[in-house]
Amino acid sequence: MAEQDMFKSLFEMQGKLNKRIGVDTDSLTEKEQQEWVLNYCRAMSQEIAELVDSVPWKWWAKYQDYDKQNARIEVVDLFHFLISLAQVLGMSAQDVHDIYMKKNELNFQRQHDGYKVKDDSDNRGIET
């Protein structure tokens, strides 16, 4: 399976799971979209906290272990919510891919230029 097909299949599977849970991202009102953007952002914040807890971050505590397996699972959990968030915003796998490619190019250009000035206006040139 091609990489793009794998990414597309993740979006398809997440859409099915969301509908099974009772969230049809295709039929949300604008108000509901706003609520679900916040819901998914909160969920991702929690998953990031769980990811952080997989790594010994308490420099003063000696009991901690690096749980690489759990860290990997938390990354996948983040993908679940991130894909759902993209779907709430009306983005397909192709949309995310295309915008990622443009943003990645912009980031490389920023690095090439030294990224000496914070200028978010260059993001405005990325068509979505």
Structure overview:
This protein has helices spanning 3-21, 30-52, 68-88, 93-112. The chain has 128 residues and is mainly α. The protein folds into 2 domains: 3-91, all-alpha NTP pyrophosphatase fold (Orthogonal Bundle); 93-128, no CATH class. It is globular, with a radius of gyration of 18 Å. The two termini are 26 Å apart.
Short recap of the structure:
By secondary structure, the protein is mainly alpha-helical.
Characteristics:
128 residues; all-alpha NTP pyrophosphatase fold
Order of SSEs, N→C? Answer: HHHH
Low-confidence stretches: none
- Strand-residue proportion: under 5%
CATH superfamily placement of the largest domain: Type II deoxyuridine triphosphatase
Q: Could you say how many structural domains there are in total?
A: 2
CATH topology of the largest domain: all-alpha NTP pyrophosphatase fold
Content-based structural category: mainly alpha
Compile the SSE list and pairings.
Blueprint lengths: L2 H19 L8 H23 L15 H21 L4 H20 L16
Helix pairs in contact: 1-3, 2-3
